[in-house]
Amino acid sequence: MLEFESFHKKFKKETVLQMDQWKLEEGIYWLKGENGAGKSTFLKSLSGIFPFDGDVKLDGTSLRKNKLEQRRWFNYGEAEPTYPNFLTGQELLSFVEDVKDGTNELAFYLTTVFQMQSALNEKVGTYSSGMKKKLSLILTFCGSPKWILLDEPLITLDVASVQVLLQVIEQMFLNGTSFIMTSHQPFTLETVQTQTIEIKNKKLELI
To answer: Taking every annotated instance into account, which residue ranges of this chain make up the domain ABC transporter (predicted)?
Structure first.
């Protein structure tokens, strides 16, 4: 369970998100909100990219007091990923595997089904937007995260890749990983029911 306690996220002096007390059970969630409502900010705060005031606890453990664990428990996939052009996909994958404590069979599987085996040996600067998105998803599924946070995971993906991704999400959830995703594209999971979170008036609520 995620527990938010006096959670505030500000940019300069402007409050973007504010939740005094809020809880979120394990599950697969679709995060909705108008453009600029704070969807990406929320995901980046949970994953440790952005700092925040207050606290968030995962199963009773403070994220603010356990930054290293936070980075292992939460994986984040950007909507429009950018990487250093001079690195190869394999170099990035090896780095993330080191950070996330070892290799990952699922990352290898995604590399295969996304047909990225040869592309991993090329510099990221040669990648199309679709290839960068596939690499981002491969990296996001490394390790053993408790929560995976995906910002617009379906954009630039072909239909076959979308179906593979949704199947992987379902299987990972059945194995104990929860998800929060933003998406302007509708999606349906075959065996798992999704729930919806809406950001409205700087607060999150289940609808």
So the answer is: 2-207
Write out pLDDT tens, residues 79-94: 999 999 999 999 999 9
Q: How far apart are CA 182 and CA 101, in angstroms?
A: 27
What would the pLDDT profile of 132-141 be if each residue is shown by its tens digit?
999 999 999 9
Instruction: Name beta bridge partners: 77.
Output: 150
CA angle 83, 39, 186 (to 5 degrees): 90
Q: Tell me the two tokens of residue 203.
A: 């607060």
Task: Enter the tokens of residue 141.
Answer: 């599924």
Give the domain ranges of the chain: 28-49+74-206
61-62: strand order across its sheet = 14-24, 2-11, 53-58, 61-62
Q: How is residue 126 written in tokens?
A: 């040669």
H/E segment holding residue 109: helix 105-113
Instruction: Pick the closest to residue 37 from 186, 200, 204, 185 (CA basis).
Output: 200
Q: What radius of gyration do the chain's Cα atoms show?
A: 17
- Bridge partners (DSSP) of residue 150 are 77, 181
DSSP strand E in 68-153: where? 74-77, 147-151
The CB density around residue 53, as the number of other CB atoms within 10 Å, is 12
Please state which CATH number belongs to domain 28-49+74-206: 3.40.50.300
What does residue 192 show for φ and ψ, rounded to 5 degrees? -125, 135
